[in-house]
Amino acid sequence: MDLQDYRRQIDEIDDQLVQLFAQRMAVASGIAQYKQEQGLPVLDAGRERAKLNDVCAKVPPQMRNYTSVLYSSLFELSRSYQSQLMPQYTDLCRKIQASIENTPKLFPQDASVAVCGVEGAYAQIAAEKMVKMPSILYFKDFGGVFSAIENGLCQYGVVPIENSTAGSVKKVYDLMVGHHFSIVRSVRLKIDHNLLAKPGTRLEDIREIFSHEQAISQCAGFLSTLDKDVKVTAVSNTALAAEMVAQSGRTDVAALSSRSCIDLYGLKALKRSVQDQGNNYTRFICISKNLEIYPGSNHTSIMLTTAHKPGALYKILAQFYALGINVTKLESRPIPDRDFEFMFYFDLETSIYSDEFIQMICELSANTEDFAYLGSYSEVV
């Protein structure tokens, strides 16, 4: 036989598989109706485990892993279809639907916003993009921002979550795990780092540079070109670094900061745009103590943990695939006090008004070990 003969055989087998798959899903719909009438859950883990062992025992040993993957996918699709036919709304689903209905149609034009740093911080610039007339409160670290919201000192907080060059801001992820806050908006901000010093200072005079650790990482290439004796010191914020230089009695120090800090602190730019990548962007999120879901929200962020066994994460991804939900980010974070176990952070693209969105929330909140819904929001351009 030649290749075309083999392909014809494959086509004939696929025709049978498609028909059998349709029959299988039709039976699954009958099972869904029965479970709904009897008040039974969609997932029957014992039945799935027994079925998987049974089908794997019917194939040669070298085919068992492939068979396991195939039938695990079939189980996921069957469960997803049954969930669609017999929606079992969790308390979280009801809370989300209530928020969609009760959140004002327009994002607040003026609000109190907490940010990390001092005047001129990138977070301040991001806050002004998200809130038209913000009343900004400054805190020395991210923990202060979260505490300010928790204690009712302000309505929102704006914090960086990831940078296109340096990656995720891990401290913010850890704080999101510890606080039950919601993301209500986000913005991508072009980051332009400049080497700032007092007027009269020359580049060759510099012996110490201050900046935030993320900015230092984003400007690693430029810093490597300087004299090896130049000390690089991490501080809590890029704008604070500029303020420190302005208030210092030294003339041999500089800061990696935004251009807005030049006039704000009476400094000059020794070098402009010293970041390694020209397309250097930081994504900032606006967080709230209350669940607020505004019209047009098409981004959703969640955190969850899975069973510590092979294929657990694959099954979660299969659910997204079955529902046609796009995963734009997946990141793992260690779980405190649990050795070698991880929580997974997902950013997803899906409309809050779609049936798939509510189905996803219901399935994940009911079928994962730990599940945290971080919010649905739109991104400001």
Spell out the helices and strands N to C. Answer: HHHHEHEHEEHEEEHHEHEHEEEHEEHE
Task: Indicate the radius of gyration in whole angstroms.
Answer: 26 Å
Structural class: alpha/beta
Q: Kindly report how far apart the N and C termini lie.
A: 58 Å
Tertiary shape: elongated
In terms of DSSP E residues, the strand content is 25-35%
Helix content: 40-55%
Q: Total number of β-strand segments?
A: 15
Subunit arrangement of the protein:
single chain
Q: Uncertain segments of ≥5 residues (pLDDT<50)?
A: none
Mean pLDDT across residues: 91
Output the number of helix runs. Answer: 13
Characterization of the model:
The protein has 381 residues and is α/β, with parallel strands linked by helices. It contains 13 helices and 15 strands. The protein has helices at residues 3-38, 45-57, 64-85, 91-102, 122-130, 142-150, 170-178, 213-218, 220-224, 238-247, 260-264, 312-323, 355-367; strands spanning 110-116, 133-139, 156-163, 167-168, 182-190, 194-197, 208-212, 231-235, 253-257, 268-271, 281-288, 299-305, 326-334, 342-349, 370-380. Strands 1, 2, 3, 4, 5, 11, 12, 13, 14 and 15 form a 10-stranded mixed β-sheet that branches. Strands 8-7-9-6-10 form a 5-stranded mixed β-sheet. α12 packs antiparallel against α13 (355-367). The longest helix has 36 residues, at 3-38. The model has no long low-confidence stretch (mean pLDDT 91).
